[in-house]
DNA sequence: GACAGGTTCTGGAACGGTCCAAAAAGGGGC
DNA sequence: GCCCCTTTTTGGACCGTTCCAGAACCTGTC
C-alpha cells in the first residue's frame, strides 16, 4: 500500500531498475520499445519519484529555499513571481519558509531549509541573523532580495533603487510647483536611503531650507500622528512624501480630519505601490518597486552562482517607476 | 568541504555512528559522558542532520505541506499562524507552496509537495483539482481549510461559519433600525452561503420584501458599480452588506461619490476583517473569520488522522465574530 | 570466579534513488 | 559462423540516516 518505487516499475515493465532510472531521466540511449514499456508501467502504477531518495543520491535537491521575512507584507508576491519564472525554467523548485512564523519557535528560521539541503537560498526582506548567513553562504549561493543591508561576503543583493525612487517622487512634487515639502521618514536601511535621497534632491533644487522631515514608525498610526503635527504648523507643507503606502494612508486620514482636501490643499505620495494604494477610494500616487524585475534578477544571480561558484557579492538595483494617481496635484 | 555527516561526528567523538544517532534522537540509554562527547563533537563540526536521509530511512518527513491558493490574498496568514503553532508543538514542520505561482508551469501544484512525501496536506482556499485530491487523500491525511467545497471522501474540512457570520451582520443592521438592506453578493460556495443566510435572516425578521441583492464579482470595481446602481434607486437602501471587505471598499467609494456620508446616510459592512478594513481611514465594520481557530482546528484534524488514519471526513465550522467599527450606525 | 540480568554500544541491513563499470545484445563484414 | 565494434542493459556500490539483533560491558549474588 506504499507508493510504488522504481523497482516496482522495473518489475512491471520487465526491465532492471537502472533502465527505469535511465528512461525517467530522459536518456536517449534506450530502445524506443523499452522506453515505452517503462513509461507505461510508471503511468499505470502512478509512480512519482521520491525526492528524498533522489536528492540523497544526487547530492543536490534542485530546490531553492525562499526565506520570507513576513507573509503579512504582500509586496514580495511579485518578486516571488519573477523569481519563480526564471528558476522554474532552470529546472528548480522553490520552497517557502516564513521567518516570522518560525521565529517564535526559537530556532533559526533558515534551519528547516538548510536541513533539507536546498541548493540555494533567497532571503526576501530584512535579514534574520546576519551572522548565521555568512556560514550559510560558504556552503551555497545566497541572494538577498528586496532589502538593502550590510551583507556577508559572497552574498549577492538585489533591490529597488530607493534613492532613485525618492528622487522621482521629490522631483515630481517640485515639478508640480511644490516648494515646502515634508517627508515622513522610516527606519532601517530603506528608510535611511529614502530620506537621504529626499534631502539630497531638495538640496539639488535649492530647496534645502524648505524641506521638513518627521520621523514615523512606518505604520498608519505613525503616519497619522506625524501628519497632524506637520499640518498644524503655521508654515504647513503643501506636499507630504511618506516612506511607504501605509504611512501615506495615515497621512491621508490626518489631512482629512484637519479639513484639508487631498490633493487640492495638500498632496501626498506613498511608496511601494501596494494593493492598498490601488484602492480607488485612496488612489495614492506612489512608487512601484519593480518587484518582478527584482525577482528575476535574484534568480539570475543564483543561476550564475550555480554555474560558477565563488566570487565577490554583486549588487543590482532595479529602476523603480512613479505611479501617478489621485493624491498629487499643483499646490492650491 | 561537504557538510559533516553522522559518521564524521562519530569519528570525532570516538564512538559508532549508531550511538551518535541514539544521542541525537534523545535516547536515555546512553552514558552521560558519551552523550556529552557526541554533543560536543556535533557542535564543533556544525553538524546538521540531513533531512532527505532521515526521511528516507524513517519513511516519514515530519512535514506537512500547505497548499495556498493565492499568496496575494492575505487572509490566510492568521490561519497559518494557528496551524503552525499546533503542528510545531507536535514536532512537525510546514512547507508552503503557492498554487497560483506553480499553476502556470502546467503541472499539478501539489506535485512538488507529494514528491517530497509530506506526511499530510492542508489545502487552504479553493481546491486545485478536486479529482487529484481524492487520490492524494488515500495516501495521507488531507484537510481543506478556509473554504467550503464538495470534498473527496476522507478529507476533513474546516472553515468559518459563513451562515452565522452573515446572520450576525444582518441582525446587527436590523438591530440598529435598518429595514431596507442590500447585499452585494459574490460567487462560489462562500458567496452563496453568505447570500442565502442574509436572505434567510431578513425573512426571519419579516423583512423579506425589503431585502435587495446585487451580484458583484468580489472586486472593488464590482462593489463600486453595484453600489452606484443600488444607491441611485428611488427607494435606496439604508444599509449595504458586502460579501467581502474589498467589495465593501468599492461600496464606500460609491457612496462618497454620490454625496452620501457613511455611516450617517448609509451603513456599509464588509466581511473577512482584512488589514484593509482596519485602516483608520476606512475603519469598516466587518466579520472576523476566526482564522487562527480555523488553523488550529485544521492542525488538530491532521494530528488526529496521524494517530488514527482512515474514517469519515469531518467538518468543523469556526464561529465568526462581528467587528463593529465606523461604518455602521442607526439610519438617519 | 562463574553466572544472571541489566545497561550500553555496535555492525549491518534497510530506505529509494543515481551512476558506473562491465555484461549482454545487436549489426556488419568476411 | 566468427570476430569486432557499438549500442543497450544490468548488477552493485553509494548517498546519510534509522532501526534492530546481538555483542560487550557492568554489577551484584552465590
TrEMBL record, chains A, B:
CDD domains, A to Z: HTH_LacI, PBP1_LacI_sugar_binding-like
Superkingdom of source: Bacteria
Pfam families, sorted: LacI, Peripla_BP_3
Family matches, as InterPro entries: HTH_LacI (IPR000843), LacI/GalR-like_sensor (IPR046335), Lambda_DNA-bd_dom_sf (IPR010982), Peripla_BP_I (IPR028082)
An annotated Gene Ontology molecular function: DNA-binding transcription factor activity
HTH lacI-type domain boundaries: 4-58
Signal peptide region: none
Alphabetical UniProt keywords: DNA-binding, Transcription, Transcription regulation
Protein name per its UniProtKB record: LacI family transcriptional regulator
Biological source species: Streptomyces swartbergensis
Taxon lineage: Bacteria, Bacillati, Actinomycetota, Actinomycetes, Kitasatosporales
Amino acid at each position: 500500500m506504499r507508493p510504488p518505487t522504481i523497482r516496482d516499475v522495473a518489475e512491471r515493465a520487465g526491465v532492471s531498475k537502472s533502465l527505469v532510472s535511465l528512461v525517467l531521466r530522459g536518456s536517449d540511449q534506450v530502445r524506443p520499445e523499452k522506453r515505452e514499456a517503462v513509461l507505461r508501467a510508471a503511468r499505470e502504477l502512478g509512480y512519482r519519484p521520491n525526492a528524498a531518495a533522489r536528492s540523497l543520491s544526487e547530492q543536490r535537491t534542485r530546490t531553492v529555499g525562499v526565506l520570507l521575512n513576513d507573509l503579512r507584507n504582500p509586496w514580495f508576491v511579485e518578486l516571488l513571481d519573477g523569481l519563480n519564472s526564471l528558476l522554474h525554467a532552470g529546472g528548480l523548485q522553490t520552497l517557502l519558509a516564513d521567518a516570522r512564523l518560525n521565529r517564535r519557535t526559537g530556532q533559526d528560521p533558515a534551519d528547516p531549509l538548510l536541513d533539507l539541503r536546498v541548493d540555494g537560498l533567497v532571503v526576501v526582506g530584512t535579514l534574520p541573523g546576519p551572522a548565521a548567513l555568512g556560514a550559510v553562504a560558504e556552503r551555497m549561493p545566497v541572494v538577498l532580495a528586496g532589502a538593502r543591508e550590510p551583507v556577508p561576503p559572497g552574498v549577492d543583493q538585489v533591490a529597488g533603487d530607493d534613492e532613485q525612487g525618492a528622487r522621482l517622487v521629490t522631483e515630481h512634487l517640485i515639478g508640480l510647483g511644490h516648494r515646502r515639502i515634508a517627508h515622513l521618514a522610516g527606519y532601517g536601511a530603506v528608510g535611511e536611503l529614502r530620506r537621504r535621497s529626499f534631502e539630497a534632491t531638495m538640496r539639488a533644487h535649492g530647496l534645502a531650507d524648505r524641506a521638513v522631515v518627521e520621523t514615523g514608525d512606518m505604520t498608519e498610526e505613525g503616519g497619522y500622528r506625524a501628519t497632524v503635527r506637520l499640518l498644524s504648523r503655521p508654515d504647513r507643507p503643501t506636499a507630504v512624501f511618506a516612506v511607504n503606502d501605509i504611512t501615506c494612508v495615515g497621512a491621508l486620514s490626518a489631512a482629512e480630519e484637519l479639513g484639508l482636501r487631498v490633493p487640492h490643499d495638500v498632496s501626498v505620495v506613498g511608496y511601494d505601490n501596494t494593493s492598498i494604494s490601488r484602492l480607488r477610494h485612496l488612489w495614492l500616487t506612489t512608487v512601484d518597486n519593480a518587484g518582478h524585475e527584482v525577482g528575476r534578477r535574484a534568480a539570475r544571480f543564483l543561476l550564475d552562482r550555480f554555474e560558477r561558484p565563488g566570487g565577490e557579492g554583486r549588487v543590482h538595483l532595479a529602476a523603480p517607476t512613479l505611479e501617478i494617481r489621485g493624491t498629487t496635484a499643483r499646490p492650491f
